[in-house]
Design goal:
Number of helices: 14
Shape: globular
CATH topology of the largest domain: Rossmann fold
Strand order of the largest sheet: 3-2-1-4-5-6-7
Radius of gyration: 20 Å
Order of helices and strands: EHEHEHEHEHEHEHEHEHEHEHEHEHH
Number of strands: 13
CATH architecture of the largest domain: 3-Layer(aba) Sandwich
Structural class: alpha/beta
Number of domains: 2
Largest sheet: 7 strands, parallel
Strand content: 15-25%
Length: 346
Amino acid sequence: MILLKIWIDISNAPHVRFFKDVIKYLEAEGEDLIVTARQFGDIHKLMNMYDIDFISVGKHGVSLYDKLRESTSRVYNLVDIIADENVDVALSKHSIELPRISFGLGIPSLYVLDNEHALAANKLTLPLCDRIITPRKIDFWKLMKFGADPNTIIPYNGTSELMHFKSFNYNDDVFKDLNLKLEHEKTILMRPEPSLASYLDADCRKSVLSPIVDELKEHANILILPRFKEQAEIFEGIDHVTILEPPVDTSSLMKKCDLVIGAGGTMNREAAILQTPVISCYPGDTLSVDQYYIDSGLMYRSINPNQVISKALEFLNNPHERIDLKTDDLFQIIIDNLYDLGKNGK
C-alpha cells in the first residue's frame, strides 16, 4: 500500500475543529502528516486540546501593512519547511499561504472555501488551487470572477460547519463544568464580531452586541465568548453577563443554551445545525452560507438592535420546532478528493 505525505495548514481557530476528524482519520490510516498552524486567537490552545501535533509558523497581522508583512514572512518560512518534504497533496481552508506555496512547488492542492466576500484572500488563492470544495449555495460566477477555474469547483449541499459535529459528544453538564452562576431561567450565548478580519471594517473596542446585551440581561443569563482581550473588556462588570475564557466546549454550550446571538458566522451556523434558535447580527454583507440556514428557517438575521431584541424575546418563549435539513457528507467528499489528488495528481 502506498502511503501519502499530506500537508495541512490551519490559519484560523474554527479550522481546528473543521480538520480535527480529517487529521485523526488520516493518522489512523497511517498517512504521513505535516500540520502547520499560525499563531492567532485560540488556534494553539485548540490544537493542544484536540491533541494535534503541529508546527507553529507565523502570526496574524492587524493593519494592512502588518497583514502583508506577516503573510509574506509566513510564506518564506513555510517554504523552508515544505520544500524538501516531497509532499503529495496539500489541504487547507482559506489559508492564504498554502495555495501559493503548493502552486510554486508543484504540489496538488485541495482548498475548502465558504466565504465569497473574502475578496483579498480569494483573489490570492482561488486561481492557484487544483480543486475547490464549496457550498452549492455560493454563486460559482462570483468565484470565477476571482479567477477560479469552474472545472476545479466541487459543490456540496450544506456548509463547512457540518464537519465540526462528526465526532461530537454532547456534555449536558457543561454549565456545571464551567462553574457558571446563572440566576435567570433562560441563557443566551453571544459571540462578538470578527473585528480583526480583513473582510470586515470594525472597531475592536466596540461591539454591535452592546445595546442587545443591555436589554436582554434583564431577561436571561448572558454568556459572552470574546475573540480577544479588547472584546472581553467591552462587557466586563455587567450584571448577569459572564465572559467565557476559551477554549471551551462551544458545541455543548450552544446545544445547552436557549438562544445564540452572534455577530460573526461560524458559531451561528453551528447553532443552526444543532437546532438551537440563532439570530445573526453580523454587520457585514450576508454570506451565502448564512442565507442557506435563513432560507431553511434555522436562522434569523437582522442588524437592527430592536429587531434582534424583539426576536430574541420571542425565541426565549417560543423556540422553533425541529427542521429537517438534507445535506451531503462533506467529510467523505474531502477524503475522496484528497486521495484522488494525492495519488493521481491534478
